[in-house]
Protein 1
Amino acid sequence: MYVYIVPVKSFRCLKTLHFLNVHNEVFYVPQGLVSYSMPAEEIESVSLPVGWKSYISPEGRKYYVNTSTKGTTDVCICVCQLHGAMEMEESFDAEGSFDDVSCLSPQSPGSTSPARRQNKEKEIKETKITINCVTFPVSMSAPEQQLLKPSEWSYCDYFWADKRDPQGATVSGFEVLLQKQLKGKQMQKEMAEFIRERIKIEEEYAKNLSKLSMFPMAAQEEGTLGEAWAQLKKSLADEAEVHLKFSSKLQSEVEKPLLTFRGDNFKKDMKKYDHHIADLRKQLVSRYAAVEKARKALADRQKDLEVKTQQLEIKLSNKTEEDIKKARRKSTQAGDDLMRCVDLYNQGQSKWFEEMVTTSLELERLEVERVETIQQLLRQYTTLRHETDMFNQSTMEPVDQLLQSVDPAKDRELWVKEHKTGDLRPVDMDI
Amino acid sequence: MYVYIVPVKSFRCLKTLHFLNVHNEVFYVPQGLVSYSMPAEEIESVSLPVGWKSYISPEGRKYYVNTSTKGTTDVCICVCQLHGAMEMEESFDAEGSFDDVSCLSPQSPGSTSPARRQNKEKEIKETKITINCVTFPVSMSAPEQQLLKPSEWSYCDYFWADKRDPQGATVSGFEVLLQKQLKGKQMQKEMAEFIRERIKIEEEYAKNLSKLSMFPMAAQEEGTLGEAWAQLKKSLADEAEVHLKFSSKLQSEVEKPLLTFRGDNFKKDMKKYDHHIADLRKQLVSRYAAVEKARKALADRQKDLEVKTQQLEIKLSNKTEEDIKKARRKSTQAGDDLMRCVDLYNQGQSKWFEEMVTTSLELERLEVERVETIQQLLRQYTTLRHETDMFNQSTMEPVDQLLQSVDPAKDRELWVKEHKTGDLRPVDMDI
């Protein structure tokens, strides 16, 4: 396997190559990385980050492309399986930027000697990689990790690595989870606003119906027809009542709970979690620095011992065995220092690991609670709507009854009794 | 019976008297009225006009009072049953205005001579009265009139007499019926206006719901919860549709028919009837005038004959039998003229009578039709309201379904798949 840093101009360039970009566009390459290997199957099992897709080339080889960077100059680390630099060159078409390719492997591009390939295979045994001061396994020979909570798509299983946001800043997986919760609070606020707007509409409607019910149109209609008409007009006031009741319940049973079921403490709690986890990462950074410093110190001490031993052998200097013993002691000490630093680092990482699991599960629980609470409140909304329509229907009952009783004959009797002028009929005049 | 014209100051005055005011406050007294009688039972059967009530005095006598004129100086014709003027005087209390009482009877107030009472009883045989040139029966000895359409409170039975409106103008019974129909047209117009206002309210409501359904609140909610929320927002647009449909049907199935079911021809037809009946009354007025003229001419001729016959007997003049024959001939002629005039008058009255029956029955039919049509249209209104509430309910179904399907675990899976940063867990660093 060869490791290249390639600016990706167009995914069309990458026809026959196998690429893996583990952390979106840029794979942070820490000092000290020599090489790493990852077989194609492992590439599959680590699911591709957002925007990466896998394709089959005409030749039948699988390759992975970052589709979201088409046309940009992002750099990606390409892990080329079994391809030498020459084959890389051949694969790039004229639009490629092969000149920009630099190989991280000890061997420079162009070298394909079997001896080097053999050395490569030795280096392939490298099994871990530290990215942003967090140490992950890489080797296919390492026992495969089981998910902590299989089949649950749990937060504690999928947010270990950092990523880069569109501006290029580093964002921890935990940060992504936190942002999700804060966004959830924003969502409930916006839903409450929506309900508020509905309330306003209902109140306006009720006001209009109420006003209209008092207009004097056809108030002079009398009898059974007049009664039915009066009740019809009144029914608008009844409808207005129904809608006012609806809006009132919307406020108390939907809007208010949406606004208040995560109190102000919620944001404070989120900040607390944020700082706590961030602090643990910062500690990890400083402990990793200590490890690197100790490693360098050890290398220096070992080199010093080697030089001094060689000098003794060729009798280059008048260094005594005393000097060699001293050098050996310092070397041993440096080794102890390194062990201690690595220990502290591992403890720090474990601590962060535990907090990550605990806190991400809490965030997961909060999200389940949020979804269920909102589901509940929205069900309350539909219940109130059902109720309202039923109450509204019932306002028609008295109107229907009175319309049923409309009786032209009765109305005539009532009106004639009130307005008649005389029932004596004229008779012939006598002479 | 005595007939008095009494200014009525206070109904308290009229404790023990029986009054009948046949046409509200003023009973039009035509020339030639001598007296008329009406027994108490007949007073009952002609139902009291508006404002008139009957009371029982402490002595147990029934009396009728115009309660709406308390404190005014309306004049009424009082028919006092079996009370002489002296009893009238006794009955008025200090607040009365008995000085203003004038008796229409040949005997002046204060006179209670039996001889005069006997004359009164002779005059009581008067059986008809002509009011506003229409001749009505008054005597209790006349065969009682049966209603043309008993138990139906038909227009053709109760609008024979004229009345006075509040301004004092004469209004025919037919006019009252006509005004009722014109008012009915006004009623349907006002009802249509009311429906129009409802339509406007519905359109406003629909517009507001439709706008709100497109607001972007919580548009970023994803997964099953996001789907349910999106459907909830969409349901407002569905509700808007329902209300728009309602307003549209209100317009075509209620408002429009209310405006148009009596066409413009209606007012023309009413005018036609009005003029036709009024013309027949006018004709009656001129024919009545002819009768009065002929009656007077006959009286003159008769007087002339009488004088001439007397003169012959006392040999006062040298008039010959020839002159008497001439006078007798003229008298006979005048008698024939009178008969002819009375005949024409009676024909005219019969014609008017027939048209009154026909036309008032047509107006009655139109009123039944109006009431039934309006009943129908208002039932359509309530039907549309019922429909609307049901359609409105159904807009909640898809929302309920999606809320049912809200699944926090599924939403977590979807979100984690999209946003995860890496599932490789950290491992201890090697030395």
Protein 2
Amino acid sequence: MTKTTFVEQLKEGDRFDDLFLVKSVRLSETKAGKDYLILTVMDRSGELSGPVWDNVEACHKVCRAGEFIRLKGMVQAYRDKPQLKVDSVQEIDRNEVDLADFVVATTRDPQQMAEELQRLVRSVKDPFLRKLLNHFFKSGAIWDRFQMAPAAKGIHHAYAGGLLEHCLSMARLADMLAGHYEGIDRSLLIAGALLHDIGKVDELAMEIGVVEYTDRGRLKGHLVIGSEMVAAAAARISDFPPDLLVQVQHLILSHHGRQEFGSPIVPMTVEALLLSFIDDVDAKMNLIEQLRRKMEGGAMQWTEYQRSLERFLYLGGFEEKEVAEETNTPARQQSLFS
Amino acid sequence: MTKTTFVEQLKEGDRFDDLFLVKSVRLSETKAGKDYLILTVMDRSGELSGPVWDNVEACHKVCRAGEFIRLKGMVQAYRDKPQLKVDSVQEIDRNEVDLADFVVATTRDPQQMAEELQRLVRSVKDPFLRKLLNHFFKSGAIWDRFQMAPAAKGIHHAYAGGLLEHCLSMARLADMLAGHYEGIDRSLLIAGALLHDIGKVDELAMEIGVVEYTDRGRLKGHLVIGSEMVAAAAARISDFPPDLLVQVQHLILSHHGRQEFGSPIVPMTVEALLLSFIDDVDAKMNLIEQLRRKMEGGAMQWTEYQRSLERFLYLGGFEEKEVAEETNTPARQQSLFS
Amino acid sequence: MTKTTFVEQLKEGDRFDDLFLVKSVRLSETKAGKDYLILTVMDRSGELSGPVWDNVEACHKVCRAGEFIRLKGMVQAYRDKPQLKVDSVQEIDRNEVDLADFVVATTRDPQQMAEELQRLVRSVKDPFLRKLLNHFFKSGAIWDRFQMAPAAKGIHHAYAGGLLEHCLSMARLADMLAGHYEGIDRSLLIAGALLHDIGKVDELAMEIGVVEYTDRGRLKGHLVIGSEMVAAAAARISDFPPDLLVQVQHLILSHHGRQEFGSPIVPMTVEALLLSFIDDVDAKMNLIEQLRRKMEGGAMQWTEYQRSLERFLYLGGFEEKEVAEETNTPARQQSLFS
Amino acid sequence: MTKTTFVEQLKEGDRFDDLFLVKSVRLSETKAGKDYLILTVMDRSGELSGPVWDNVEACHKVCRAGEFIRLKGMVQAYRDKPQLKVDSVQEIDRNEVDLADFVVATTRDPQQMAEELQRLVRSVKDPFLRKLLNHFFKSGAIWDRFQMAPAAKGIHHAYAGGLLEHCLSMARLADMLAGHYEGIDRSLLIAGALLHDIGKVDELAMEIGVVEYTDRGRLKGHLVIGSEMVAAAAARISDFPPDLLVQVQHLILSHHGRQEFGSPIVPMTVEALLLSFIDDVDAKMNLIEQLRRKMEGGAMQWTEYQRSLERFLYLGGFEEKEVAEETNTPARQQSLFS
Amino acid sequence: MTKTTFVEQLKEGDRFDDLFLVKSVRLSETKAGKDYLILTVMDRSGELSGPVWDNVEACHKVCRAGEFIRLKGMVQAYRDKPQLKVDSVQEIDRNEVDLADFVVATTRDPQQMAEELQRLVRSVKDPFLRKLLNHFFKSGAIWDRFQMAPAAKGIHHAYAGGLLEHCLSMARLADMLAGHYEGIDRSLLIAGALLHDIGKVDELAMEIGVVEYTDRGRLKGHLVIGSEMVAAAAARISDFPPDLLVQVQHLILSHHGRQEFGSPIVPMTVEALLLSFIDDVDAKMNLIEQLRRKMEGGAMQWTEYQRSLERFLYLGGFEEKEVAEETNTPARQQSLFS
Amino acid sequence: MTKTTFVEQLKEGDRFDDLFLVKSVRLSETKAGKDYLILTVMDRSGELSGPVWDNVEACHKVCRAGEFIRLKGMVQAYRDKPQLKVDSVQEIDRNEVDLADFVVATTRDPQQMAEELQRLVRSVKDPFLRKLLNHFFKSGAIWDRFQMAPAAKGIHHAYAGGLLEHCLSMARLADMLAGHYEGIDRSLLIAGALLHDIGKVDELAMEIGVVEYTDRGRLKGHLVIGSEMVAAAAARISDFPPDLLVQVQHLILSHHGRQEFGSPIVPMTVEALLLSFIDDVDAKMNLIEQLRRKMEGGAMQWTEYQRSLERFLYLGGFEEKEVAEETNTPARQQSLFS
């Protein structure tokens, strides 16, 4: 079954019969003692909630958070907001759905990104660092999670695949800077660019449609977790030079640039300084890119106040992209999940 | 040979023949091309420098930094400062000296401190935390270094044995607070008090008479190093609960209390909050104790401006202690090294 | 008449006939020129508002802010919020009500706290400080107000009796620290713990159910007011040593620890430093205790973002207490007012 | 005996026989066991030190800190600095000296300032505030000390009479602003201008030639002391309105403008806001005036870096004043002390 | 046609037929595809919005933002807020309306302010500065806009004519200070007071009823724009001394007092320091004046929390003014626009 | 005459006869009334001072600050510092000296840098920006001064030609970033990189061997001066789009990135954000490069504490460069001045 109706297109009065992801379901009771469900469903374009009054028990079995359902119903207005009115729900197997319909994801091609990452890893001359990178980026659970991870919760690159996109962009910048300035250890800087946020794989718990901090993530932070992950990996590579490990750990631990931003130590090597710069630049540029993609037309205009930057921005949209974005269906990223 | 002459007692014109530690030695050359040495020797009371003009080559062999020598000479005035005039130097075996003559050390009895630590460890009810503490504090290289370590470079508890003294004082405070407030995990808080600075054993390179940061110490910081050490130890204890490890790591990583003070994450558990408080209190109280010990008499008076506290302090000395401290020989701490 | 219905238990449609405290009453007029009242009543569990359409004049006479009434009515929904519908009101004498039903108060036994305070005062060795403490804590208007005062408006110990609870907790900590560190003036530190917030008695105007700043409180602050109160008391104690008074005033004036927190001078004596620490610890620990009391079960979980601490906290509830708190009636603190 | 030789005029080799104030005297001992004195004398233009080798005992009796002596001797060079060589000293009665020769004082006429102050006090319409001002400024010990006090230790108006000069300047500004803005309580603002620093009379111990903080001054600060002094004075004025006292205390307590500058509360009334502004302006303008008086000629030039203002200033001197200041004798302020 | 109905007087159910300014108009479409307008009209007392269902096309032609209309209709309640119900609209020529009915303006007489400005300009002794001032304040587009400009968007003097009022107040303060302190260049200080915000004429786009930043204003800021405007004016005055121009530009560029407040350089001359002070004082005093004008009666009371000042204020109203302000019609300022 | 002796090579006792630049000369008088000169001479390696006792009048005519002299003399020790002893001085024409001997200059080839700049200018597609760049960088006084200017006084690129070197490095980074991120206006970013510090040409007065702020530079700052210079240049280019000028001015005014760093407005366009980043990176990288060039060997080591970065750095030298830098004569940069 191919999903054709997306939440953001639904208007009051619309009827639909399509696939949705159950975000949450809560059993409640009226004053009169009657059971009912409050059901929230979502797809990649938004979410919709409403009560389920009939067949509550059967419906409750089908509608479990994180599962997919086929939902027939319509959109009603309730206190000026659209509300879901459920007619029927039906269980759907996860294999029948295209995950790309349910997750906001990078617009870049995941396959291409993976290949670019491999090329970058191969270009690292230092054999120990190359082995270290292969440990994380060749295959396995970390690699699987890394590909799907957002770079942050709700700020920059906040979508599936965003972490990979961010690391690749930084690695390309690292490559440029290593060519621009004299005496930069390119292997180290590129390894730092690719590994600096590796701890996020463990700091963030990513389910379809939900990103949350893990307890461990909050109590230790992704810098320390990343530093530990790299140490564990290096321990499995024979003769990995201890000083080199300290350098990589320093890159990871110091990449927030300042202690008040959560780095236990400030960047003290050339590579660590450059890494903290390009992390900052790339994060801000992605945030701006997101703002520009939402603009209509290329003309310069003022954005809303951007709290994270503490300023208004004066931006133009990406003119030539407008055509593509004006198609009716929200853009899909099939390859990421196929 | 028993050392009887200490640097702080030497006045212009004094002759001496006693044991000293070579702090540094530098071969130099006069304009006329003649070799000479600039020798700096020290004991626990201070240091003294001067040129060596005769037997330079032989003297250079004997006077290596970190080694002990028997030195005959006198004190001269040179540009209003006392200068060492060397008559002869003689090699001395490290076993022949009493290390306590050369190192500023805690005034507390090391043996008693070790025993108190053992009692505290035994009082920890959680079996995993008790095993973890035994891993560090029973014997072995870490325990040897821990006993000798200062708690900091030049601020509080800045003397051999100071780290142990600081951790014990904190553990006693932890014990009190665990009794005072409801719902404190005493095992965890005491483990945190004893382990919070364990990374300093690796962050600081302690030679006799010199404390320096290691490269690794500067590039990672003792919080992250300590967190790693604890993880490594827990990995060797079978079935050590992962959540408990995270709690201990959180205590260590957050004990500076604020990110701008170098903690990658702020204290987020009750025990972590209390630990950061008692670390702060105990460090400041030791700093004040050092100031008070230098005062004569018990009368309240104003200290010099204390840069680390950004204020003047109004303190009285410890009256009853004055007698002991007025003896001519600088106080010795034999037991620490015997 | 014994109050059995509490605001927090009232649901839409419920009818009641019980005692309430009038929080505010406002005479208003419809567009059509008809008078009506907007009445807000409260008890210790919450408050409820609604219009009074009938017998407006008579009702207005009875319903004066700060007075108790017997109120018959029901709960209606109005714009999705519960609203008071008044059937009748009747004047009630203050002596007929149990004040504990109307005020959020400390869970500790006031009598026990008063006795503990007396023991602490008697344990103060310095005779002048003991007399000073007796001046405030033996009897009289200040003592009456002190017992009933919250320690703060809406942050820590924000309930009747909270100030006494806070000061006692601090005094016990002071006692421990005076035993732990050498050279602490225990008399002074305990006096400081008990008197540090004495100015709040004047800074805050406490009526039943309302705590507000006085003009004088806002324009001078409780630190300066407390310092003045202590000076006035000392002036009545013959031969009170001027230097000792300055020390006590310094403790009060500096106990916020830093100028940016409102202390005109920073702590400059050992006792003042310790006092500012334990004030900070005890305030934060009470805030956390309040959070933990609201949790169900003992399992660790993340709190809401705590603005005053600028962080999330990871806390477990007090398991054994849960039973008591699950009883249907909100916990009462009879002894405080009887 | 009229003083004619001033320290700042003395050059190497000069002989002199004149009056000086003993700033300090210290008995010392040579290595050889011989007693000698280290004597420091001063006048309003500077100070000079040197050893006294002969008649040590007799000389020690005469030369007590704070006393005046007739000193014969010469200036020698010692390590490139001028040193005092004493030939003889002789006791001098304080009545025989003109104090103006020994104290850096305001250039304004003290008598005129006192009269202007009286006029300002008489112009205050509120009878209670007028009485309050008369309490401080009519006569008595506080008035004597107030007239001689500097406004600060080493920053602005740092000379005898500076406090009076500063308060008068502020009162004139207060008068202007009360005329400029609507609804200013002129009586209150002028009272605030005259009383805002009254606590300095107690905070600073002023001996001839020396200004030091008192213990009490450091432990309470001049804001709180001033607030107390005003309360004590008001207590002696029958029916002094309590609210008015709180207003005056608020002016004093808040006049530093911000908590981080030591005000326990920030200005919250119109008069308090204006007072904190004019205190700031007048202090900075006096600092600048001092800089300009030291400049030669009227041309604009850059000052040294001014640490208290964190900037360089671009100033011109006071051209017409140069003539007066080029006279050989340092300017005298006879009237202040006669 | 004379406007008699003002928005702030309109209550639910009121009918009206009066002049309004169109603030905005937006063409919209119902789900059913029917066009309608959302019209917002305003006068100086407030604004009102509502849908227009009939004669949409004709109405759309008449109701253009910034134009005046005669509007017949009534006030309805819609979700508890008053809503405009339009019966008919009619085009009105701008000359037929009294602009003072539509703009919040200074309460001072514009003519008097203009004359006072001229007197101040004539009093400036330096001929070049006088010419410079005449350039801006004699006539022409800048002068026209200057007279109508608010001093700020929504903070102090935020009403038509506010900028002129603010500059005049500052110039009078400048005059006083130039008389109070020695060695102030009065010409320069008064020129600075009058010109310091001249860039706002360009930074802010002022339409009737709307004040917005221009792109240029946001991208350069009024300090730099003002500095440029002065340079351009000076370029037209023959022989304008370059150093004098730099002084005036320094006054403008530094008048925010600190870099973090947007001054690229801090005040470094006496006049620049004074200017930054009086700008700060006058802005705060106007903000307070606005608060006081809204108070009823003269009694002291606490304001709401003032975010821009980070405090509550304790203010009394202007008693004698109350009479004037209690008249039913919102105060008019005819002279500003006539 | 070719200079062969450089100040940094001169040791006590050395005689010399070579070319020097007069840095300063001051006529003084001994106590005995004899005239003498205090002469300070310099070359690119350092400076040397000493008194001139003979032929004072003739010598004074020859030795004017900023002029070149042939100086015969020797080096004496005076209070442990080398002092100049002058035997004779002789006037030298500026054309006879190689300026490169007297100025610390960039190690890059000035001719190559000029050509690279031209290529970059030609690559700017926007015709107005290209014209604007040509206005500054084609020829004329500004271009002459620009080439010789340091990028800063004593921090980064603090040597002749440093400004050009810095701007070129930034322009290359700008080029890379414009290729890396989508939707960057490359013309604008490159123009910003080349022009951002153009105001320094006016802010700094650069004489041979001396860099000082101009009065105008200090009172306005190079950001505002640069913005004015660009506006003046654009005014001469027909039809220069006003919006484009505002964009360029915004780049210049905001390039310090934050108001507290002296930018009157923060970067609000994409290009301005990127420009402030690359300015920061390039300045820090040059500072580090200077540190690395002073290191011997390539091994990692800790630098002194770097106050401008508030940290120690862990750097390795540039190994392959060491050979060149070990030559005896300080490196020369002939081409810059020939």
Protein 3
Amino acid sequence: MSPLCQHTLLEFHGCDPAQLRHARKVRVLMREAVLRGRGTIVKSLFHNFSPFGVSGVIVITESHVTIHTWPEHNYAAVDIFSCSEKLDHKAIRQRLRETLLARRVSARSFSRGKLPKNLPRVNKRPDAR
Amino acid sequence: MSPLCQHTLLEFHGCDPAQLRHARKVRVLMREAVLRGRGTIVKSLFHNFSPFGVSGVIVITESHVTIHTWPEHNYAAVDIFSCSEKLDHKAIRQRLRETLLARRVSARSFSRGKLPKNLPRVNKRPDAR
């Protein structure tokens, strides 16, 4: 079976809470990390929660990258979901580790969309019309 | 260790491709499924890809629900990420199975944000300011 995509679930612990509090800052950090990973950004959406914490998503041509932050716990959950070998998951992980000042990062990776091998593959995720 | 959130990865195979092609329709299906699961919608973002396929995300107070569709393969990948016991993952899964007319659905579930038990938990994910 040939998977369509790869999905990495990341846990960033012991982060600097100042990097996790505000949507504007988290958006900048995430966009920069995605570009480091050679992602092609389509749209993004970031939201502040009250009293603190951010949820955000960057839709990329390769699929998406999401983040949820808990500054009160110095913790952020990040997902990298991509359907192109071009996207460098490790580069994104490494860059976020640096910018979030995380003490510990754990990762789990999964295949998504396992299809029979003899099915033709249409062009992966080209740019939108 | 007490996890902050639960994350369900869903694979919908053998779907009706007509339900997977256009952002407008996928948005409606997803929003309705999230409401069935008692999710509180904050914002959503859906995007058509060329020649076909949709990527979408619904940010909820409980965190997020995402979808990526491959109508050419009758397949959709859905993620449900929630930090509140209120969100009913199974109800969302069941509703999408019905509306996407999926022949087969597989699920994997994971805990996210395992913290030491003695840390105080701040109010989970209240509504935004």
